[in-house]
Amino acid sequence: MDNSSGVGVLDKAALVLSALESGPATLAGLVGATGLARPTAHRLAVALEHHRFVARDMQGRFILGPRLAELAAAAGEDRLLASAGPVLTHLRDVTGESAQLYRRQGDMRICVAAAERLSGLRDTVPVGSTLPMKAGSAAQVLMAWEEPERLHRGLQGARFTATALSGVRRRGWAQSIGEREPGVASVSAPVRGPSNRVVAAVSVSGPIERLTRHPGRMHAQSIVEAANRLTEALRRNGG
Question: Is 155 helix (H, G, I), strand (E, B) or coil?
């Protein structure tokens, strides 16, 4: 067959995923669609389920899994970064504070873009910096819309609570005051991919002296607008 890569197991796994592209399938449906032997189709579907490329629906049928959406979101990162520069620069100019964009990677978050404050006291987070998911408004935003099991795990040892995260979901933004670093305050809002999943957090951070102990009152609206602009850019380019 001309779409063979020469790596048999990958070719068969690709057949299973392609069969699920048109919708949920029982094991018998997979066998019919792929032409694979029943034990092979079952073994591959279960292995793909283990890696979250395949999942099950309420009827126990095989469906495409969440890992594919996560990889698609990561593939959109170049679109996100292409749009991030002007948006972060504008946010910095409007707020007068350093602006950052964070993505989650496992148990950490990474600063993937930033616009630094031009003068005076800065809260500098260089691009490429890896920060914990246990503290800070960006961590709250990246955690707040997670599935319950992952949310529960993430809250262990965190400086914020489940109640705080439910407030983040209600408001659509998060703030922290000295949570990640003494004397530093921040406000963050979610960027969503085409599937509405939170793929990044936009933040503004600076000294509590400037941002006060209620930084959201000052800056939440500007940050939510910036996050919405990036969400729109992702939907326009990759929806």
Answer: helix
Tens digits of residue pLDDT in 138-174: 999 999 999 888 888 889 999 999 999 999 999 999 9
Helices (H) and strands (E) in the chain, counts: 10, 8
d(CA 172, CA 92): 20
Of 140, 137, 119, nearest to 184 by C-alpha is 137
- CB 30, CB 38: distance < 8 Å: no
**Residue-level pLDDT at 144:** 95
Kindly report the pTM of this predicted structure.
Answer: 0.68
Q: Where are the beta strands (DSSP E) in the chain?
A: 54-56, 62-64, 98-105, 108-115, 130-132, 174-177, 184-192, 198-207
Nearest-CA neighbor of 171 among 181, 183, 163?
163
